[in-house]
Amino acid sequence: MPLPLKTRYAILSLVVSVGLIGIKFYAWAITRSQVVLTDALESIINVVASGFALYSIYLASLPKDENHPYGHGKIEYLSVGFEGGLILMAGGYIFYAALQSLLHPQAIARPDWGIALLAATALVNLVVGFLLVRAGRQHHSPALVGDGQHLYLDAVSTFVSCLALGMVILTDNVLYDSLAALLLGVFIVVNGYRMVRRSVSGLMDEADVTTVQQVVAELQEHRLPAWIDVHNLRVQRYGASLHIDCHVTMPYYLSLEQTHEQVHGIEEVVTQEFGVPVEMFVHADPCTFAACSHCHVAACPVRQHPFTREITWTLANVAKNERHALGLSE
């Protein structure tokens, strides 16, 4: 049985990271450059993070079970946070080591060889990082996107290292080496914080505004007269899967079978929009006469007020836990 595509990309990332770390430490061995050591130390994080990303993608692919009724997709956000935490620690150490090197500079040997080796690793990281980010976005995998962005970060760090070694060659001043390492330490810490922030957002179910807007737009475009009102809409992402729930006001005189058909129609409208597994729960609320003014149902047998206007569903009003224009909290 062939491995899933996400797993194959994660394995590619791990293999590439292991290979490049050997090249970078060889470059440091022949140059004794602080900025090259900085780059090599960050690559250790790549290996650990790629391994954890691979394991998290495997866990995320497991089906739902009794202990995990929403599946295992959240592990991918944990993977991003773990990777970000490692980057933060590495950045802190790199910053400290760069300060020490700045205070006690050392001569650099064969910087031209260092540039050649590092430039080759940077190009590989850029290509693999691009592939991982593209695959992660196509398959809605936070772990792959985070791993690819980390490789982008590593490539940027490597190019800065090459620039620093170039300045050492041109000026014969080793302080450029230490200054570049210092800047990389700051850059790495900032990006590590951003990854941790993104991980926490996913684990805390921070609203995915883009996805919610897509759901609202689909409901608005395909709305039926019996869907009088939509409110308390919530969207949660579990790895590649989506869990959506909302309240829909419908005519109170519909039979249970008719209400079920309307709910099924809502679920079909939403699930067809997304190319990922969608689990949707719709809570049907009975209408009240106060809803007549914005109800589209023609020839309603119990209408008490004429239709006056349609309430357009937007991100701002569907998320509220109250029926539109009624002010009735539930």
Give the gist of this structure.
Keywords: Membrane, Transmembrane, Transmembrane helix, Transport. This protein is mainly alpha-helical and 330 residues long.
Series of H and E elements: HHHHHHHEEHEH
Mass-distribution shape? elongated
CATH topology of the largest domain: Alpha-lytic protease prodomain-like
Radius of gyration: 27 Å
Main sheet specs:
3 strands, mixed
Share of residues in helices:
55-70%
Terminal Cα separation, in Å? 50 Å
Strand order of the largest sheet: 1-2-3
Describe the protein's architecture and organization.
With 330 residues, the protein is mostly helical. It has two domains: 5-203, Cation efflux protein transmembrane domain (Alpha-lytic protease prodomain-like); 209-318, Cation efflux protein, cytoplasmic domain (Alpha-Beta Plaits, 2-Layer Sandwich), CATH 3.30.70.1350. 62% of the residues lie in helices and 9% in strands. It contains nine helices and three strands, in the order αααααααββαβα. It has helices at residues 5-31, 34-60, 75-103, 111-138, 142-171, 175-203, 209-221, 256-271, 315-318; strands at residues 229-238, 241-250, 278-286. The chain has a three-stranded mixed β-sheet, with helices on one face. Strand 2, helix 8 and strand 3 (278-286) form a beta-alpha-beta unit. Helix 2 runs antiparallel to helix 3 (75-103) and helix 4 (111-138) packs antiparallel against helix 5 (142-171). InterPro entries: Cation_efflux (IPR002524), Cation_efflux_CTD (IPR027470), Cation_efflux_CTD_sf (IPR036837), Cation_efflux_TM (IPR058533), Cation_efflux_TMD_sf (IPR027469), CDF_Transporter (IPR050291). Belongs to the cation diffusion facilitator (CDF) transporter (TC 2.A.4) family. The chain crosses the membrane at residues 9-31, 43-63, 75-98, 113-132, 152-170, 176-196.
